[in-house]
Amino acid sequence: MSERAGPESASAPRTVLEVQRLTVESLQGDGLHTIFHDASLSLPAGEVVLLVGPSGSGKTLLTKLLAGLIDRGSPRLRIGPNSEIVLGLRSGERVRVLGPNGRYPARLRGALGYMFQYHALFDELTVRDNIRFGADMASDPLPPDAFERELQQLARELKLEHVLDAPIDALSGGQKQRTALLRMLALRPEILIYDEPTSGLDPDASARVAARIRQVQHHGPAEVRPGMSLVVTHDYPSLLGVADRVVLIDPRRGFEVHPVRSDAEREALRSLLAEALHRWQAPPPRPIPPRDRTLLRDRAAWHRLRTAPGRLFDLLRATPRLLARSARWHRRFAASIFGLLVLGALPFTALAGLAIGLVVSYFSLNSVPQQLQGQLEPIFIEEILRGLGLALYQILAPLLAAICLTARSGAAIAGHLSHMERSSQLDALRVLGMPPWVLLGDKVVLSFMVGMPLHAAVCFATASLAALLVVLATRPLVTWYTFSHSYMAGLGAHVLDLPYTGSGWLLAKLVPAGLLCGLLAWRQGVRPKRDATDVNRAITGAIMQGILCVIAVFFVVLLFEVQRRRAGG
Fold first, then answer.
1. 433-463 residue pLDDT tens
2. How confident is the model at residue 420 (pLDDT cuts 50, 70, 90)?
3. What are the two backbone dihedrals, phi and then psi, of residue 101, each rounded to the nearest 5 degrees?
4. Which helix (H) or strand (E) segment is 102 a member of?
5. Relative orientation angle of helices 327-341 and 442-474, to the nearest 10 degrees
6. Count helices and strands in the chain by DSSP H and E runs
7. Would 356 be classed as within a structural domain?
8. DSSP 527
């Protein structure tokens, strides 16, 4: 059985969402909670549908399943093997969300628009750029002039025209909500999912958002009109006026579907929903022994491992298209990440180089025995400077620079990515059809790989400057020429003659260390987090794992280097 369920019959009304035998259980501290049990649902195309239920009833879980934000690989969810969700697209194609191969269908990436409850706007971008990002991810992007006209019109309707060039952190909660709405609409998706679209809005703003939801669904251009607008909400009184159908999640009967065809039905539904939500009780959890908990986690881990090759293939296949479609955003995020990780850490590394240069050179020069001072001292000074230059270039400066970069920038990127994960910005990228690794991950790793040699060079330069100052201050008879000649003798070159001896081995230490540190920091940053404690663990993990990785790489490569030198010499 393939992911595609095949086209629907031309004579039958199109079904945009079909759920069959959906069983989902959530693993929590007190046991296994049943969210859905053998639930089924069928919704026709062309409607605004409210999905109503109290907190914990499974509203957001269902929409995240539809959008591919959670799957069978979640360690805290148990999805029944016979559960099936099928989405119907404009073309008549029917696509299985819970496909037999365990992967979310690539066909649906970018085909669903998802408006997150807490906005999930990109902090680095302005209001205009957030919306432009969504437009660029559309399967058929508008030309720039057409996009600008449509943006100005929608911004006026939602009272955002005066903040289009403002940063996101300057907006009020309501302005962020409306910006998120415009970004989703700019994607021109086939199915729209709204997660609490009126949360935090005043009555006037709620009415405008509700009117916009209905206008997009029923009066937009036919070629881009969504197949369905699914609205997850607690604020059903504000949205019943624009709804064509209401789906109530009931713990015993699954989904209750109520059409809204008249004002009388609408008023009756208000009372019915209020009563149903008042009496709603979650089913009691089912105790689960520790062995079964471990088994559930092992099954989830096996699912992730089994589907990893397919997900990697989907990622590689989509990367060229995504790079071509969104080159401007790749350049912009690359510059931002490089500035955060590499350029921002340079002063820290430069100061560290000065410190180690001062300490090592001072104590090295003062290590000449008292009885050897005098006529023999210049010979010892030359040898000390030769060894000092060699040690700083090949071991001390690069190791210190790598540790400084790993500690400072590993913490910075782990914290930054943790914020993006907690605020759903990474999920927003996935829904928009842009895998976070393609836009951010490769740039994080490349920044570390480029940053390691750059920081090592800066650290060596400032350490050398410190050594020169110490020598000139403590040994007045040593000239610049004597210092540079002796200091660089072990490196087989003059100051400006690059590359120095041993540069190949140096890169063999720094580049792999940068690769591994970047991957570790990325993994720590994007892992799901429930609270601030998890964020702190991610930052600490990125620092500690990165430093240990740097030391291990330097140690292993240094062993090979010593063996090779002995074999050659």
1. 888 998 999 999 999 999 999 999 999 999 9
2. very high
3. -85, 0
4. none
5. 30
6. 18, 11
7. yes
8. S
**Residue 209 within any structural domain of the chain:** no
Domain that holds residue 412: 327-568
Q: What total of structural domains would you count in the chain?
A: 1
Dist. CA 2–CA 96, nearest whole Å: 8
The residues, ordered by sequence, that sit 6+ positions from 69 with a Cβ below 8 Å of its Cβ are: 114, 427, 430, 431
Is residue 241 included in any domain, yes or no? Answer: no
Task: Name which of 168, 170, 152 is nearest 160 in CA terms.
Answer: 152
- Residue 440 has, within 13 A of its CA and on its CB side, a CA count of 25
Three-state DSSP class for residue 288: coil
| Predicted confidence (pLDDT) per residue in 469-503, tens digit | 988 888 777 777 777 778 777 777 666 666 777 88
Residue with structure tokens 């998890």?
A: 534
Confidence of residue 10 (pLDDT cuts 50, 70, 90): very low
Strands 191-195 and 31-44: unpaired
pTM summary value: 0.85
Number of residues that make up the chain? 569
Residue 440 within a domain: yes
pLDDT of 569 above 60:
no
Quick one: three-class SS letters along 105-127? CHHHCCCEEEECCCCCCCCCCEH
- First vs last C-alpha separation in the chain: 64
